[in-house]
Amino acid sequence: MKVNLIKYTREPEKMVAVAARLCYSPVGVDELMDELGDEDVEKLVRFVIKSGHHSTIEHIYFTFAIEGVSRALTHQLVRHRIASYNQQSQRYVKFKDNFEYITPPSIEKDKDSKKKFDSLISNIHNLYKELLDNGVEAEDARYILPNASETKIIVTMNGRELLHFFTVRCCNRAQWEIRELAKKMLKLVRKVAPIVFEEAGPNCLRGPCPEGKFKCKNPPKASDFDV
Ligand SMILES: Cc1cc2nc3c(=O)[nH]c(=O)nc-3n(C[C@H](O)[C@H](O)[C@H](O)COP(=O)(O)OP(=O)(O)OC[C@H]3O[C@@H](n4cnc5c(N)ncnc54)[C@H](O)[C@@H]3O)c2cc1C
């Protein structure tokens, strides 16, 4: 899995601080941009996070390039509605020679399961190529491609949505692949907006686990998400 933070709002935490201060300030945005120092920014960002004035965090955007993940993962990812997506198409891209797929670790570690998995994927790929050779359009041939198919996606989320995404997808209840993605994304944004994402992650890092009988046995530690 390859995850890169390719674009983000310049001075993200200053942006959040300016948005927060503007609400209570008689002066304009230009002046606020000039007068807010690092300490003010830190104080204001901590205040908005703690007080729940999270609309201010909607002004900062983060764009990720995600490659080497399965369609099973992206199907879950795109359920997050406050975001923008563009994904490699299975209609316009034909996977005749280079059909990549993701093997879950549980299958990878079991020799027999892995052999059967690889063999099925190989059969699927052969039939896919045959369908294309027979004149079937890629948009129809793709109906036989598995959830394991490798894909690439660009996603942009604002800071508020990211905090929600990290809460539900860094949790051990989330599926392993999207959990791995969420963890990588969190580490990336922590580098550029450390205060906003200081306490980001599953609910159990900030309070009691709300998962009831689904509560996990080995909850993650804050250090698991350290940069
Ligand atoms: C562990 C786990 C298991 C899951 N299992 C299943 C499953 O079995 N089946 C299944 O279908 N899905 C499942 N999901 C997906 C889940 O139901 C959500 O679709 C997904 O997590 C997107 O999150 P969201 O809806 O909270 O928020 P997002 O779409 O990320 O939106 C963020 C927030 O904005 C607000 N919001 C967004 N849109 C609306 C709206 N229309 N109306 C009101 N408020 C809105 C809500 O407060 C929401 O929490 C699972 C998710 C997880 C984490």
In short:
By secondary structure, the chain is of the alpha+beta class. The protein has two domains: 2-85 and 151-225, Gyrase A, domain 2 (2-Layer Sandwich); 104-146.
Structural descriptors:
alpha+beta; binds flavin-adenine dinucleotide; 9 helices; 43% helix; Gyrase A, domain 2; 4 strands; 2 domains
Please, could you describe this protein's structure?
With 227 residues, this protein is α+β, with helices and mostly antiparallel strands. The protein has two domains: 2-85 and 151-225, Gyrase A, domain 2 (2-Layer Sandwich); 104-146. Helices cover 43% and strands 14% of the residues. The protein has nine helices and four strands; from the N terminus they run E-H-H-H-E-H-E-H-H-H-E-H-H. The protein has helices spanning 12-22, 29-35, 38-51, 71-77, 105-108, 111-133, 138-141, 159-169, 176-192, and strands spanning 2-8, 61-70, 83-87, 150-158. A four-stranded antiparallel β-sheet has the order 1-2-4-3. The longest helix is centred in the middle third of the chain and has 23 residues, at 111-133. It is elongated, with a radius of gyration of 22 Å. The mean pLDDT is 95. The structure holds flavin-adenine dinucleotide. Residues 79-82, 161, 164, 168-169, 173-174 line the site of flavin-adenine dinucleotide.
